[in-house]
Design brief:
CATH topology: Nuclear Transport Factor 2, Chain: A
Radius of gyration: 15 Å
Number of helices: 3
CATH architecture: Roll
Strand content: over 45%
Strand order of the largest sheet: 2-1-6-5-4-3
Largest sheet: 6 strands, mixed
Helix content: 25-40%
CATH class: Alpha Beta
Low-confidence stretches: none
Oligomer: single chain
Distance between the termini: 23 Å
C-alpha cells in the first residue's frame, strides 16, 4: 500500500513542479487541507475548501512551483514530502526560494484524505515524530 500511495503523491508533484495546481482528482471529496503555522495558518474541508485555501495562497505568487526534494514514507497511510517552493511575489516582485517547507499527505483507499502544509520543517518533524540530524542538516530520522 505504501508503494501505491507514494506513486499517487509523486504524480501530484509532477503537476506541482510545473506550477499546475488545477487538478484535485487525487483528493477525497471530504479532504482536510491545512496550513500549519506560517503567516496565515488555517484549515479547510472538502474539495471546495481546499481549492479556496490553496487559491488564497497562490494568488500572492507568479510562477509558483513546489518541487519535492525527498519523500519520507512514515507508514502505510502517511507520506511527508520535503519541498522546495519557488516563485515571485505578485505585488513585491521578490523571488522566493524556500527549502524549509514540508507537506504531509494522509492517504486511504487510493485518495488523499488530508494535506498539511508546513512552512517550517522542524514543526512537521515534531508533529510526525521525526527529528533532524544533530549536525543540523535537516535530514529526518526516526526517533
Amino acid at each position: 500500500m505504501a508503494s501505491a500511495n507514494l506513486d499517487i503523491v509523486r504524480s501530484i508533484y509532477a503537476d506541482w513542479e510545473r506550477g499546475d495546481f488545477s487538478s484535485a482528482a487525487w483528493a477525497d471529496p471530504e479532504i482536510e487541507f491545512a496550513f500549519a503555522g506560517g503567516p496565515e495558518p488555517g484549515s479547510w474541508s472538502g474539495l471546495a475548501g481546499m481549492a479556496a485555501g490553496y487559491r488564497e495562497w497562490l494568488r500572492a505568487w507568479e510562477g509558483f512551483r513546489a518541487e519535492p526534494e525527498e519523500y519520507v514514507v512514515l507508514d502505510d497511510e502517511r507520506i511527508l514530502v520535503l519541498v522546495r517552493n519557488s516563485g515571485r511575489g505578485r505585488t513585491s516582485g521578490l523571488e522566493l526560494e524556500e527549502r524549509s517547507v514540508a507537506n504531509l499527505f494522509h492517504l486511504r483507499s487510493g485518495r488523499v484524505t488530508r494535506v498539511v502544509v508546513y512552512l517550517d520543517r522542524e514543526l512537521a518533524f515534531a508533529d510526525v515524530g521525526l527529528a533532524t540530524r544533530s549536525d543540523g542538516a535537516g535530514v529526518p530520522k526516526r526517533l
